[in-house]
Design goal:
The chain has about 130 residues and is mostly helical. Helices cover about 75% and strands about 0% of the residues. It is elongated.
Length: about 130
């Protein structure tokens, strides 16, 4: 059965614009959120200034003061926290999608409007695709 669009063709531009807007917002807010989680978790091990420097790529300057093992442990702890937050966010988003996205209704006119010939051709194509 061919896939049907969830948006009527006359509103495709509006839907595409909304998708791109939310994608860009997700990038901007996601980077800010995950950067904050990373830095705040590293502050459990390091002073605030050192955590910000490490998050900004300043490990080389901090190596002499804190030692490489401490910096690696702080960064790994921050990345662990980021992974937990990202996974939780993805799980919640998945549940929301399943709960909120509606499936298109299949009406009698949709099924019968193709006619018997088109339906037989579609069944033949499906059978050929399974064999090949």
């Amino acid at each position: 059965m061919p896939r049907r669009a969830a948006v009527p063709p006359e509103r495709a531009g509006m839907a595409g614009g909304a998708v791109n807007t939310f994608r860009q917002l997700g990038y901007a807010l996601g980077i800010a959120l995950f950067g904050t989680v990373l830095t705040s978790r590293m502050r459990d091990t390091l002073p605030a200034d050192a955590a910000h420097a490490l998050a900004g790529g300043g490990a080389g300057a901090l190596r002499d003061v804190f030692g490489e093992g401490v910096l690696r442990a702080a960064f790994a702890g921050g990345l662990d926290a980021v992974a937990v937050v990202a996974g939780s966010t993805a799980a919640v988003a998945g549940v929301l999608v399943l709960a909120l996205v509606r499936r298109p209704r299949v009406t009698k006119t949709t099924v019968t409007s193709a006619g018997p010939r088109a339906l037989a051709q579609e069944e033949t194509e499906e059978t050929t695709a399974r064999r090949g």
